[in-house]
Every structure is written in C-alpha cells, then in structure tokens.
Amino acid sequence: MNTAALASAPTLEALYPLLAERSIGAGWNKPEPAMWPQPKKNFVPFHWRYADAAAAFESASRLVSTEQAERRNLILVNPIPGNIYSTLRTIVVAYQTILPGETARSHRHSPNALRLVLDAGGGAFTTVNAKKIPMTEGDVVLTPSGSWHGHGHDGDRPATWLDYLDVPLVQLLEPIFFDSHPAGIEKPERVTPESPFIFPFAKTEARLADAPADAQFGRQVELGGPALRTMGLFMMRLAPGAQTAPLRTTANNVYTVVRGEGSTTVDGVTFRWQRGDVIAAPAWRSHHHSASKDSVLFRVTDAPVMSALGLLREE
Ligand code: GTQ
Ligand code: FE2
C-alpha cells in the first residue's frame, strides 16, 4: 500500500484513519487505557446454593440421560455481561449428578480438573487412567491435564459432586485439546482407594484436627503442594463463632461449604451459606468468613498460576 499519504498526513485526525486501515493504533490515542492502578472488578462476588442445584437435578435427571449429555452438570456462570461460562476469570465450577447404573463416557482434555464429593451413598466412582477410584463424601479427586476419566455408579441413590476446572484459563492461553476415549467408557484395570489422585476426607479431617489455628484462615491444610499446576486446594476448619482475617489477593478463590453454617463477606456483600453452597471471591476483593457452627470450607485458588508468573500479591 502507498506510504506517501501516511508520511504526509496534515493532521492527527487525518493520520488516524490511515493507521486504522493498516490495523495500527496510535498508542497516545487508545480508545481505552491498557493499564489501571489496580485490578478491575470484572467478575462479581456470587453465591450459588446447593438446594437450587439439587432441585434442578430432579428435573435434569428425568429429562436428560448421560447417554445424551456426556456430563449431567450445572455450570456456575458468573453473572456479568458477556460471560456465558466462567465462574471466575480462570476457573469454572459445576455441580454434577450421576444416577445408579449410569456411566459418563471417558475422555481426556488439556484443562486440569478436580472434584469434591457432596453426596454419594456408596458405589459412585471415577475411573482415572484405568484406575477405579471410589467417591465418598468430602473426598477430593484429581484428574490432571491429559488424564483419561469417566464416571460410573454401582450404588442405589444419585451421587452428586462439584467439578472445578481451569478451562477459562486454558481457553485464554489457547491450548485446548479434547479427545473422547476410543472405548467409550474406559475399562478399569483395578480398584485404587489409595492413589496420588485422591484426598480422602477421613485423612483431611485428621490433618485438620492437628493443624495450628491461624487468624487468617482458621485451621487450614493444603491438599497437595499444589495439587495441580494451575489450582491450589485447601481445607479450612472454622470453630463456631470464629471469624477469619480479611484476605485481599490477586488470586481468584472459590469456597465450597463441606460442612457447617456461616457467612462470607466479599467486598462488602455478605452471603449466608450452608453445606454444598459455593461462593466466588474474585481477584482483589477483600473477603472473610464467619462460622456459626463448626464448619469446613474447601478453597480452590489459582494462586499457583499467579505465583508462577510473579503476579501473586496478598495482604
Ligand atoms: O466430569 O469430566 O463439569 O470434562 C465439565 C467438564 C465435568 C468431567 C464438568 C468435564 C467434566
Ligand atoms: Fe472431563
């Protein structure tokens, strides 16, 4: 294209359209600033109730099978304009239910995933890389990037858990890969109640009982170190009447109520929670928790990502 006109623009107003034709922007005339003093409030604090998900699953279990839907899941979509999927910038959370006798086909994907079991009367399992892992309440099960996984249920009442995935982060970075298992459902080679991919709740509880009380987090233990490259997992135990110190961090945090009752205040908004509820605390929103009963909160955080990139700031 002719550069003479570009070189001889009589005014800035004449220069801008010539630049725009070439997909160049004048850095001193940006439509919006590229930086700001501190993180924007893009995602909002929000509270999802297990009671709503459980009721919706009564319909969904009637209306959709795992044959039709590879996963019968309900996605916790942060209610901000334009968002159709993410719970927070880097993390998506979903409730999932499977009925006795059902199977959810095996697949693998580049995003990391983990589950926290909410209700399982025995018999529910996940198969990870051909190892059958039983799922019981409070257990956390990992399916790291690239591992084959599918779910099944040999018990007699519906099983429900929460899924946490780093899909929004991997979408942002681009390297999404997904494969369906050639066999449809991966055949388990053996049952593995003990595996680096499972954190049984009984073990977590024993560790919590021994953990020192801390003003910031109550009694807190980490599952893994970190459990996944992109997501850190913590269990926090709050005594009745306990209140944690406010936390403001560049990391995104999602809290799930494993047990108890209480409230979480995120950037001035207070949510009263019960077992199975999920609270989203977006980056740089100060938040703290209060327990009215003996409570356990599960914290999923993208702090390992921030830390790896030198972007973690906490106060
Ligand atoms: O169970 O494999 O909620 O791949 C979203 C994507 C669950 C799963 C979700 C998934 C899964
Ligand atoms: Fe998956």
Give a quick precis of the structure.
The chain is built from six helices and 22 strands.
How many individual domains?
A: 2
What bound compounds does this protein have? 2,5-dihydroxybenzoic acid, fe (ii) ion
Shape estimate: globular
Proportion of helical residues: 10-25%
What is the strand content?
25-35%
CATH class call of the largest domain: Mainly Beta
Q: What pattern of helices and strands is seen along the backbone?
A: HHEHEEEEEEEEEHEEEHEEEEEEEEEH
What is the rounded Rg?
Answer: 23 Å
CATH superfamily placement of the largest domain: Jelly Rolls
Spatially, the strands of the biggest sheet line up as 1-20-17-22-16-15-14
Can you put this structure into words, describing what you see?
By secondary structure, the chain is of the alpha+beta class. It is built from 6 helices and 22 strands. The chain has a 7-stranded antiparallel β-sheet. It has a 6-stranded antiparallel β-sheet with strand order 2-3-10-5-8-13. Strands 11-4-9-6-7-12 form a 6-stranded mixed β-sheet, with no helix packed on it. It has helices spanning 4-7, 12-21, 50-63, 167-173, 201-210, 303-308, and strands at residues 46-48, 73-75, 92-98, 103-109, 113-119, 124-128, 131-134, 140-143, 149-153, 159-165, 178-180, 190-191, 198-199, 213-214, 218-223, 232-238, 253-259, 262-266, 269-273, 278-281, 287-291, 295-301. The mean pLDDT is 96. It is globular and about 80 Å long. It has 2 domains: 46-201, Jelly Rolls, CATH 2.60.120.10; 202-308, Jelly Rolls (Sandwich). The N and C termini lie far apart (53 Å). It binds 2,5-dihydroxybenzoic acid (GTQ) and fe (ii) ion. 2,5-dihydroxybenzoic acid binds at residues 71, 73, 94, 96, 113, 149, 163, 165. Fe (ii) ion binds at residues 107, 109, 113, 149.
